[in-house]
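go over whats below:
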Amino acid sequence: MIFAWLAFFDALLAIALIAAGIVGAHFYLFAPFMGFQLFALGFLLSIMGALVGFVAVFITRKPQLRAGHNRALVGTAVCLLIALPLIVTVVRSLKYPAINDITTDFDNPPEFVFAQKLQHEPNRDMKYNKAKYAIKQRAGYGLIGPIKERLEPSAEFARVTEVAHGVPTWKITYSDAAKNTLEVVATSRLFHFQDDVVIQIRPTPDGVSLIEMRSKSRDGIGDFGVNAKRIRRFFDRVALARGKVNEQEEIP
């Protein structure tokens, strides 16, 4: 029965494409985005296989077609096991706006210096586009503002640099102590997608510091909320480091 075979082979091909996409990107056999494309193709095939499988299961329900029925059941089950978790993930991602550049300051965002040299496209514009991103960021994530620290800028820059060194998936690519600016490349664990991060410590009139931050993806249009989470989680790390410093200061 052709529909049963189609469902079965769709399931096998979906597994092969998803595995090839993950393994190939993870072990640097090809570019991360190509690995993701293979992964996405496998996902689409699993949906197609599940639909074909439902038809095959219905058509082969008669006893004389039992062999095709079992094949259709296996193919449909495998396709569903692949498709359903991914469908849930995709549906959940719809709550995030289709942007991939997040900042703590819309009017005076930290700008990249060294990251321009690391782009896939040499002439890619790394300037922040307020008209394109600001409204969507507010609507999708609410307030993501800078955090205020009691240390003066140079001391805070040293602390932030130390915290950045401690993030396992980050690599510091540029550091300017005169401008209290740090640039980082953040690499995802599975596909090894790379995003660019810039952190800048700015003085305030009352003598303390603001930590401003911007996180921008190199690939895609949306980011599944990754850049906003990255900023918030880094600020959590800074707060934790602040607590440790305060505890040390209290020791007689």
Notes: The first helix runs from residue 2 to 26. The chain has two domains: 2-93, 101-250.
